[in-house]
Amino acid sequence: MNRIVFISKKAVELFILFFLILTVLFFLFRLAPGDPVTRMVDPMLTPEDAAHIIEQMGLDKPLITQYVIYVKNFFTGNLGFSFHYGEPVVQVIMARLPCTLLLFTTSTLLAALAGVFLGKISAWKKGSRLDGVLSISALVCHTLFVPWFALMMLWILGFKVGWFPLGGIISPELWIEESSFLVKTLDVLHHMLLPLLTLFIIHVGSYLLLMRSSMLSVLKEDYILTARAKGLTDRVIRNRHAAKNAALPVVTSVGLSLAFSINGGALTEQIFTWPGIGRELIFAVSNNDYPLAQGCFLLIAAVVLSANLIVDLLYAWLDPRIHY
Amino acid sequence: MRGLILEFIIKYGYHVNMSHNFGFINRFSSSWKIFIQNPLGKAGLSILALFALMAFASFWVHLLGPMYDPMTGVDPAVSHSVGPNTSHWLGTDFIGRDIFCQLMEGAKIAFIVGLASAFISIVIGTVVGMVSGYAGGIVDMLLMRMADMVMVLPSLVILLIIAALFGQLNIWMIVFLIAILRWPAVARVIRSQTLSLKHRPFIEASRVAGASNMRIIFKHIMPNVLPLAFLYMTFRVTSAILVEASLSFLGFGDPGQISWGMMLQWVWSSGHMFQAPYWLLPPGICISLLTLSFYMVGRAMDEVLDPRLRKEGKE
């Protein structure tokens, strides 16, 4: 019961936050210098079409009515038309979402798993040479400048050695011809490996450091001493007693560090021309495609918040002590 | 930034109360000794000193002549990007500007952005944290909910959307925006520190003596949380430098200032990234090294502030 209350509290909180973001964005779009109408209506449209969109978004009505229409439009999935694509924004961003989710979830999961594993070993062998090497490399990974590192990966592994394609998600020639499903899957994987590796290296360091310090504090707990006194083997103590408890803060951190992962993800997408939301946002901002920028932003916010909720669910499920 | 900040939240926020070890100024010399014995601290400080030197040197670059001006100086003998040579130690960019001079200018901007933005976010975070912890109740709840909310926002994405709406941001605007997006972690840590201080005898004593809440917060609590805030500042510096560099890299930086991120943007957008390693390598190495050194200094300071870590280190 407690868990259900805890989770629904979290869900309500995140929903309120999303609503706040939605509201702030509405007023930002109206406060910014320039005419809000030109911002939401493509200047290339014919007057009749423009009038239609103005009416649909209520841009000629008072601010409060506009706001109500804006919220209603949002929840019915009407985010306006992209200037560049001439399609509904929802259609554009929904086509990009799977690419982002694919890259993002795979890299986060792999980095978290590897980080937890390496951090466990590092803490267990504290003070050894292995620990030193792992900690220092984690620190370096952690402070790497993402775009530069991505460029280096692209330059060395993509251009010099030539193992990986220089960008994109597919090789078009394979898709025009009738290729088998397996060939297509392998093609996407081949394109995904380089951005995946980049994101993995960038994120694994922080998980390692976090797991290491969490594990070190758990190892001082009395129940570890008890476990030793019982004569359990090192392996059991390390994996069953210490690591399981030490991994809890790491789970929380996945949620809280999502904001940073999104930043890194957008930059990585941009450099590897991965057709995801982050790249679309950067494109929209550079080309003054305001409806598209707004849509991408809201979608990213929604993804971050729902991921936070998932992490909270996971946490409540993992930690039996939790009660709110 | 990222996980490490959380590591500190976990450590200071929930487990350790070490305020009685503080009293920064009178303990400064002994702290300094511990700090400088730490290999991380020594290495970090040395690299920082090197970059500080670079940043200071950038004030005298104009003495070399107009050709070496990082923004407008163009070598008449060079019309495209050339590799390192005797008159340009690190080569030139695509219109013949000296890369080494740009690097020095970039060091200056990185320090300004990092330190200014970290300072603002520390001030906000410390005040919010102290008030929240000391006041408790509804104030505490509201402030902490707000902190939680701001904490999950991706700063770069927010800066991008603001840049889209308001056009080119100038450097101080960027500094300020980074700061107001990055105070919550500080506030959380300072709050839990304040909570542990709140019921100490010396606070009770000053309340009995008739001190106002304001006086207690700023006169008695603040000196005890400042070292922790100072420690946090090193991590905020890192994060601010990285965000500014990323923004500049994407082409939304202050066009009137040369930053390392912008240098990378020029390499990339002018299509030189596969042809000019002498131009691609230095800015990236500088950003990564500078942020790493701030981090190392932070970690070494952490060991000074947390004696538990220190003893472990000597095992």
Task: Present the secondary structure layout.
The complex is a heterodimer of chains A (324) and B (315).
Chain A: H1 2-31, H2 36-40, H3 47-57, H4 63-75, H5 89-124, H6 129-143, H7 146-160, H8 172-176, H9 181-218, H10 222-229, H11 234-256, H12 258-271, H13 277-286, H14 290-318
Helix pairs in contact in A: 1-14, 5-6, 5-9, 5-11, 5-12, 5-14, 6-9, 7-9, 7-12, 9-11, 9-12, 10-11, 11-14, 12-13, 13-14
Chain B: H1 2-15, H2 28-37, H3 39-57, H4 99-135, H5 137-151, H6 155-166, H7 171-181, H8 184-198, H9 201-208, H10 213-249, H11 260-269, H12 277-305, H13 307-313
Helix pairs in contact in B: 1-8, 2-12, 3-4, 3-12, 4-5, 4-7, 4-8, 4-10, 4-12, 5-8, 8-10, 9-10, 10-11, 10-12, 11-12, 12-13
Please supply descriptive tags for the structure shown above:
A: 324 residues, mainly alpha, globular, B: 315 residues, 13 helices
Reported for the largest beta sheet of chain B, the result is:
none
What percentage of amino acids of chain B are in beta strands?
under 5%
Number of strands of chain B: 0
Q: How far apart are the termini of chain A?
A: 10 Å
Ranges of chain A with pLDDT <50 over ≥5 residues? none
Overall pLDDT level of chain B: 80
Number of helices of chain A: 14
Q: pLDDT under 50 segments of chain B (min length 5)?
A: 13-22, 311-315
Query: What class would the helix/strand composition of chain A place it in?
Result: mainly alpha
| Global Rg of chain A | 24 Å
Mean pLDDT of chain A: 83
Q: Which chain pair has the greatest contact?
A: A-B, 68 and 55 residues
Overall body shape of chain B: elongated
Distance between the termini of chain B: 30 Å
**H/E topology pattern of chain A:** HHHHHHHHHHHHHH
| Main sheet summary of chain A | none
User: Percent helix among the residues of chain A?
Assistant: over 70%
Helix segment count of chain B? 13
- Beta-strand content estimate of chain A: under 5%
Structural class from helices and strands of chain B?
mainly alpha
